[in-house]
TrEMBL record, chain A:
Function: Allows the formation of correctly charged Asn-tRNA(Asn) or Gln-tRNA(Gln) through the transamidation of misacylated Asp-tRNA(Asn) or Glu-tRNA(Gln) in organisms which lack either or both of asparaginyl-tRNA or glutaminyl-tRNA synthetases. The reaction takes place in the presence of glutamine and ATP through an activated phospho-Asp-tRNA(Asn) or phospho-Glu-tRNA(Gln).
Reactions performed catalytically: L-aspartyl-tRNA(Asn) + L-glutamine + ATP + H2O = L-asparaginyl-tRNA(Asn) + L-glutamate + ADP + phosphate + 2 H(+); L-glutamyl-tRNA(Gln) + L-glutamine + ATP + H2O = L-glutaminyl-tRNA(Gln) + L-glutamate + ADP + phosphate + H(+)
Name of the protein in question: Aspartyl/glutamyl-tRNA(Asn/Gln) amidotransferase subunit C
Highest taxon in the source lineage: Bacteria
Pfam families: GatC
UniProt keywords, alphabetically: ATP-binding, Ligase, Nucleotide-binding, Protein biosynthesis, Transferase
Gene Ontology biological process terms, A to Z: glutaminyl-tRNAGln biosynthesis via transamidation; regulation of translational fidelity; translation
Complexes and interactors: Heterotrimer of A, B and C subunits.
GO molecular function: ATP binding; glutaminyl-tRNA synthase (glutamine-hydrolyzing) activity; transferase activity
TrEMBL record, chain B:
Tagged with keyword ATP-binding: yes
SUPFAM superfamilies in alphabetical order: Amidase signature (AS) enzymes (SSF75304)
UniProt-recorded name of the protein: Glutamyl-tRNA(Gln) amidotransferase subunit A
Gene3D superfamilies: Amidase signature (AS) domain
GO terms under cellular component: glutamyl-tRNA(Gln) amidotransferase complex
E.C. designation(s): 6.3.5.7
Gene Ontology biological-process annotations: translation
A GO term for molecular function: ATP binding
Organism of derivation: Catenibacillus scindens
Enzyme class at the top of the EC tree: ligase
Active site (record annotation): K79, S154, S178
Functional summary from the UniProt entry: Allows the formation of correctly charged Gln-tRNA(Gln) through the transamidation of misacylated Glu-tRNA(Gln) in organisms which lack glutaminyl-tRNA synthetase. The reaction takes place in the presence of glutamine and ATP through an activated gamma-phospho-Glu-tRNA(Gln).
Length: 97, 503
């Protein structure tokens, strides 16, 4: 892959994925810093990784399962109490559609 | 000398012998905080009333034989990204400023079972993202050894609190050096255990494949004692289900015999010194102090030799791609719905997410989320994230090859001593490069300890001893032996010409 350029189109997409609304100044600064860091990361391209498997899990144990049994005491009200807005034991959110 | 200068195990012993109570030990910490906190600011939350009540309860338990462990009644501090039931856990972020967890992390349960008394939550870089504790939204922490300098990070508060004698030991977390580097900067001992040794249940996640909780203490034995308590299996962390509790009883027996018996642990130990770690950007004074430590270990009977580790130029790029990618995913949960901060006056749900996160996260966190979102995005995923995971495998294999020949790898903890406050954040790449000696340990899941080995000016220099996965006991034994041979780290000489020439 050739040199990656962080342009406005890439940045529009990244902001959507990151769910962050940036000010104009922040966005310009982020683009500059990201470019600088990605340029540095280009070093990885000099590493031959043909026939190398990505390391996803250090121990290659596969998935670990346990029985789906509720063990916590009923702390629903304590959990919901931590929400910024709640009503009748439920989270409240702004209009979704 | 006041009791605040004693080690955690010494305090535990005094409490056991009834020369001191848990309440008096906690009070000594609070008195010390009164003298130090205005300058150092190691803590985000100090709940005196709760801690004193807990100290009284534990003292009763010690009297009636409920608590018999070596750290029963000993005050400890906890990094503010580890959940404590009923006590604010902020990650040093505005977005979690008011978050009070309804549950304890696994390590907190273990500390409580052991009768340790939690006296406060320590400052850190926001969400553990940073190397100076300056990205904290709760104010900076100063290095107690020289308050014009940073304590390091991200566990800067835990290390500064121990160095300032405000607490006898602390817990930190280490994703890319966040225990070892501030331990080096503050002149304390800190250990990152093997990945999977300590449960991450209740640790607010940064990069899940790299995060590990570990101890910070005034010496190696205190770290080992804490590690015995917090290690062991936990079915709530799938990487820790098969973990075994660490047992340092052999080491405790040697301590009882004599310091010489502890030092003898080094005899015949094979220690490799990666030559790449001593070239390039390392401060010559750090280089000399760390090589002096290699000399000391050799004199103590270790077989010390230099070797080429390889892969060093790929460690930082691979680390930052993997860490930022996982951070962008982990931090997606902070959306203003379930806990923490929510923006006022948002329109629809989507608008609320975006504004909440924009207002709640600091700049370093936003930058890493953006970078992480980018490297995981369609079209770039293979070129960045998968490429980094492939490099990660090769880095792990480079260490595996080294550990076929060596029991320990000896390295600096950081290429320089603690920088001055306010000089690091302007150049993020430079700050990232300061993690050169620590990040690969996380990529390979290895245990490693950082401990002081000398000084440059008023600032400590950190030595790092790295072991093979699940050989935490060898790291601790080697570090304990070196500590005895080293003696007072505040006095140090240059390494021998022989060692310098060998490189």
């Amino acid at each position: 892959m050739g040199k990656i350029v962080i342009d406005d189109q890439v940045m529009d997409n990244v902001e959507i994925l990151a769910k962050l609304s940036l000010t104009g100044e922040e966005r310009a600064q982020a683009m500059e810093k990201m470019q600088e860091i990605l340029d540095y990361m280009e070093q990885l391209n000099t590493l031959d990784t043909d026939n190398v498997e990505p390391l996803v899990n250090l121990y290659d144990r596969g998935n670990v399962f346990r029985d789906d049994v509720i063990e916590d005491n009923d702390i629903k009200s304590e959990i919901v109490a931590g929400a910024p807005k709640q009503k009748d034991g439920q989270y409240m959110v702004p209009k979704t559609i | 000398m006041g009791i605040e200068q004693l080690s955690a195990l010494e305090i535990g012993q005094k409490i056991k012998k009834k020369e001191l109570t848990a309440v008096e030990a906690a009070q000594a910490c609070f008195d010390r905080m009164d003298a130090m906190e205005s300058e150092v600011h190691a803590f985000i939350t100090i709940d005196r009333e709760r801690a004193m009540a807990e100290a009284r309860r534990v003292q009763k338990g010690i009297m009636d034989g409920t608590y018999t462990g070596p750290l029963a009644g000993v005050p400890v501090a906890v990094k503010d990204n580890i959940c404590t039931k009923g006590v604010a856990t902020t990650c040093a972020s505005r977005i979690l400023e008011n978050y009070v967890p309804p549950y304890d992390a696994h390590v907190i349960e273990r500390l409580k079972e052991a009768g340790a008394v939690i006296i406060g939550k320590t400052n850190m870089d926001e969400f553990a993202m940073g190397s100076t504790t300056e990205t904290s939204a709760m104010g900076i922490t100063r290095n107690p050894r020289n308050t014009d300098h940073v304590p390091g990070g991200s566990s800067g508060g835990s290390c500064a609190a121990v160095a300032a004698n405000e607490v006898f030991a602390a817990l930190g977390s280490d994703t890319g050096g966040s225990i070892r580097q501030p331990s080096a900067y503050c002149g304390v001992a800190g250990m990152k255990p093997t990945y999977g040794t300590v449960s991450r249940y209740g640790l607010i996640a940064y990069a899940s494949s790299l995060d590990q909780i570990g101890p910070v203490g005034k010496n190696v034995a205190d770290c080992a004692a804490l590690l015995e308590i917090i290690s062991g299996p936990d079915r709530r962390d799938s990487t820790c289900v098969a973990g075994e509790s660490l047992d340092f009883s052999g080491l405790w027996e040697e301590y009882k015999i004599s310091p010489e018996a502890v030092a003898a642990g080094l005899r015949g130990m094979r220690v490799g010194v990666p030559e790449e770690y001593f070239t390039g950007g390392i401060d010559p004074q750090i280089r000399d102090a760390v090589l002096k430590a290699a000399d000391t270990m050799k004199a103590g009977g270790a077989i010390v030799e230099t070797f080429s580790l390889g892969m060093t130029q790929y460690m930082i790029p691979a680390y930052y791609i993997i860490a930022c990618a996982q951070a962008s995913s982990n931090l997606a949960r902070f959306d203003g719905v379930k806990y923490g901060y929510r923006t006022e006056g948002a329109g629809d749900l989507h608008d609320m997410y975006k504004k909440t996160r924009a207002q709640g996260f600091g700049w370093e966190v936003k930058k890493r989320i953006l970078l992480g979102s980018f490297v995981l995005s369609s079209g770039y995923y293979d070129a960045y994230y998968i490429k980094a995971l492939k490099a990660n495998r090769l880095i792990k294999e480079a260490f595996d090859r080294a550990f076929e020949k060596y029991d320990l790898i000896l390295a600096p903890a950081a290429p320089s001593a603690a920088p001055k406050l306010g000089t690091s954040l302007t150049d993020p790449l430079k700050m990232y490069l300061s993690d050169i000696y620590t990040v690969a340990v996380n990529l390979a899941g290895l245990p490693a300890m950082s401990m002081p080995c000398g000084q440059t000016g008023s600032l400590p220099v950190g030595l790092q001893l790295i072991g093979q996965r699940f050989k935490d006991d060898i790291v601790v034994r080697g570090a304990a032996a070196y500590e005895v041979l080293r003696g007072n780290w505040m006095a140090s000489e240059a390494p021998s010409e022989e060692v310098k020439e060998a490189l």
